[in-house]
Amino acid sequence: xxxxxxxxPWGWAxxxxxxxxxxxxxxxxxxxxxxxxxxxxxxxxxALAAKPYVPPKPVPGFxxxxxxxxxxxIRFKPARxxxxxxxxxxxxxxxxxxLYYTTxxxxxxxxxxxxxxxxxxxxxxxxxxxxxxxxxxxxxGYAGFKLTYPLVGRECCNQFLVFAxxxxxxxVGRPNNFGLSARGIAINTAFPPHEEFPVFQKFWLMRPGxxxxxxxxxxxxxxxxxxxxxxxxxxxxxxxxVKMRVRLFFRQVPRVxxxxxxxxxxxxxxxxxxxxxEWRPAVHDSDGLELVNGDGEWIWRPLIxxxxxxxxxxxxxxPRGFGLVQRDQRFSGYEDLGAxxxxxxxxxxxxxxxxxRGRVELVEIPTDSETVDNIVAYWVPxxxxxxxxxxxxxxxxxxxxxxxxxxxxxxVIHTFVGAGRNPGMPCDRGRHTLRFxxxxxVPRADLDLPAHGVVSAVAPARIRGVTVMAARRxxxxxxxxxxxxxxxxxxxxxxxxxxxFLRNRGHALTETWSDMLPADEASVLAHTPGCP
Length: 532
Known about the structure:
By secondary structure, this protein is mainly beta. The protein folds into 2 domains: 41-405, Beta-galactosidase, Chain A, domain 5, CATH 2.70.98; 412-526, Immunoglobulin-like (Sandwich), CATH 2.60.40. The protein is built from 8 helices and 33 strands. The chain has a 15-stranded mixed β-sheet that branches. Strands 2, 6, 7, 8, 9, 10, 15, 20, 23 and 24 form a 10-stranded antiparallel β-sheet that branches. Strands 26-27-30-29 form a 4-stranded antiparallel β-sheet. A hairpin with an 8-residue loop joins strand 6 and strand 7.
């Protein structure tokens, strides 16, 4: 593909001058792409990777030590939003440094062929006290920015995407409240305390036309191990779509490279133990990891809050998609009028082209609070990393309700786990027994097909008593789910790794359910009073 400027004879160029001027006047984004080109940013990232890493200058210490309430009291004035005076559908609100956001970033505005830095103005914010306002340096810089767009109504400007902190960004679709986050990259996430957090240190905001329905942002990433050039094409709506082009250059080889990472929170859910004193049925931003392999197999992995740090890998070839999903969207599933976990978005990664062999890695970190993100998922390529080479990853991220990642066959609705010993049964000496209940939705076309459960376990676990019961056949006439039930016996001190799906005459009726319980949790759940 030709990337250089096209040369025209002088006569052709002269005759097209008027038409070209009209086109550029009508499409500022096209004008921007012609003057500020992504290949130039790629060259900047490549040159930066050839130099030693220089950490960014942090904010003054007093800003790092603000309390949560003090920082939240620093408010950006919406009347100062970028492009507000132009009455643009897209507007930009700025984020003040402080507390968690300790690295100022450079923000540049691309307006036609003009590129100019956005100066920091303390007067754009309100502060909780005059004393704090007087201590703010005039050359401080911003910590990030928020994009607004009229998602609800024509006049209202709704925040739908936020870039703030390292390479984190969050987005929502029309019906959502903010929840999980995406990241530009994950480095050594599974190797604490040596995880790296590269930073989007510079942004270019392309000024959109007044009635534009999408916005373009470029960003330069920098960290101890890696630099990167990022191109975002953002289209908000019922589902907010972020189209990404990523070009990476490595100074050194990371232990684990995570592409298209997603970060979320799982405190407890309907199928996991409820912490003492908690009255809400569930507390989480996401309840499962969804995957679809290159061969079309869909896999659902329920999330847990493990007793200790846990990493699970799913080997895939040319994945078609993966994401963290909030599948339970019933208010009754959470009963929380404040947090509204039932409206938290799901995020779905759709790779462009063939990513080859690799794995999706799921990191689950123990937490005793819903204020801590403890879930991370990302793609780990199989090929080795060579410093100095360019690595390309293009993909889309969809933010919206759980339907953005809906498998074509039946899907998992609920997972329940408990002690496997039925009343009156003798204890299994030397083995603990668990009962698993997995409810699968059944497509209307398959309602009358007899379903058979296919369950497998990693040794030394043993499967017993596999049964499938259709809910509609026991009086729930409007129900369209089948309940898979089975018991698992496993020696104490061993984890439990399982896979299951429903089929009929060799045809899979559902996605594949995959679960893994750590040994500690399996022992707790398997315990039955009266058994040794």
